[in-house]
Amino acid sequence: MSPKQFKQTLLAVLVITAFLLPLAVQSPTYLHILIMLYLYAYMTTSWNLVGGFAGVLPLGHSVFVGIGAYISTALWLQWGISPWLGMLAGGVVAAGVGYLIGKPTLKMRGAYFALSTMAFVEGVRVIVENLDYLGPLKLNGPRGLNIPPADGGFWAFQFSSKEPYYYIILIMLIGVALLTWYISRSKLGYCLQAGGEEPEAAQALGVNVARSKVIAMVMSSFLTAIAGSFLAQLTLFIYPKSVLTLDLSFELAFIALVGGRGYIAGPILGAFLLRPVSEFSRIYFGDSLPGMHLIIYGVILIVVMLYQPRGLAEPFGRLFDSVARKFATKDDDTAQTVGSSDKVKGGA
Amino acid sequence: MDLVFLLQDVINGVLMGSIYGLVALGLTLIFGVLKVINFAHGSFIMVGMFVGYWIVLFTGLHPYLALVLVVPVMFFFGYAVQHWLIRPIFIAERDVREPITVIIVTTGIWYVLDNLALLLFGPDYRALSPNPLKGEMLELGEIFISIPKFYGFLTTIATCAGLYWFMQKTRTGRAIRAVSLDRDAASMMGINQWKIFNIAFGIGTAVAGIAGVVLTPFYNVYPSVGVPFDVKSFVIVVLGGLGSIPGALLGGVIIGLIESLGPIYMTATWTEAIVYGLFLMVLFFKPSGLFGQKHDW
Lengths: 348, 297
Fold this sequence. Notes:
heterodimer; A: 348 residues; mainly alpha; 2% strand; globular; B: 297 residues; two-stranded antiparallel sheet
């Protein structure tokens, strides 16, 4: 077995395990934790399209989560349009907003871009908190929107058990990971990579850096908004502070940076490392030591950035490669090139 | 509209705005030299507030006397943070133009500091007592001026004057300016850029401490008090031009005026939306801000 085959086998085993996991994990609590973990991995993978490949730091992706959540919910509550269609509608609106925001801001330097996306979230949150209606759309101000239980089942995107949510988000996650993989090998991916590392040089070689960044932003907004609709259907209650917060935006950036931004596996790795930390430390310290879980979170962030500024995907990848090489047949010397091939961009 | 009331609001806006300027001053200073947005700035203000608060609580001294202790403590705190946590990343990411990793580290520091305060002191809102400045008003005819805010205004002026003198007249100040203009050229001239980074970060943190002390007499102290100031400081420094000291003051006054005049014409919560709207407009149309230089870093 060559290292490449070994990797493919392992990946297949992981995916199959993920599909079979609900058979073993019966507890709704743990299933919910897994769902949230996949949801964050999904959102961060979407974030990674612009935050990782394009080399900027968006700190406002919760705007798109909010757009997705509010649009699918409003369509369902007001006109009975299925959240499945609302998801797409939210995605399209978010893509439009992503374009409008990305077009002027993506030309800015890193710090300005980060700050403007931050201001954008805060601005949108203030607006949503102050409006009961935006045109025909019901926002209900700071009280948010409550989705009453429906017996429409699949059409209503409401399920009595956690399993359907689990499979939906798992398929979404695999889909977005495959999409990222495809993009990283496409012309767009190479343009982004070149533009992220050496914008001037890339421009001189005829790469339209600004355009490829905007395209990445639009795709990223669309995909993130879909996660917002999913989140709304999962929790059945949305309000500005749950979906339009800087906290959520920051967490996506943290997961990506700890995992390794610019790597396809980075966001997923980051979510698997950081989400359990925040979930379990909240459970264990939540009452006795308030704030402890965020201290742990902050310390992890600082330590990882100090010792692995490019995220943990790099050392994990190296470890994985050496294992793969051990299992590989001796005469196969492609190990080295295969090992580094899933790296898209050096990060930061 | 009664002119006196309008004047009253304008004065309040300018006073509070100058304090916002002071709050943003440390941020703009650090950015000017290191080209790093310090997301922990609000937390530094919170630390300054808590240090000032405890000093007054235990000694009963006038709040402003706490400055004698707060300024050096905060300076060395900032110096240490820069030396131990930020410098290694600068070295590791030497060839990266935009130090995004540093932003994340400062965010980590923010999380740790705010939650450490929460863990140690609890979520309670604390008001300074004994507070010799509480509710004191200066009467000018029909206009009332809050004494703590007026002192804050004076402190802002004094801090700016002090900084200006330091930057123009001292060797270290000149070295800081040299490093902020061109760190490579400054290094070649024999300036130790790492030491200058540490000092600049220390000064920025000390200024955040001064802002904290100024705020304490009329503002509650609690662990997440820095967060609104954090976001506000970002708005102010971008408005005034990242890295510009007069820009920070002007940006602060603009925000102060919007906040004090806005509620006359609309619901108070909407003024916040105006602030962000203005912020985004400046970013789109004049990203270098009102006083900022064209960024070529």
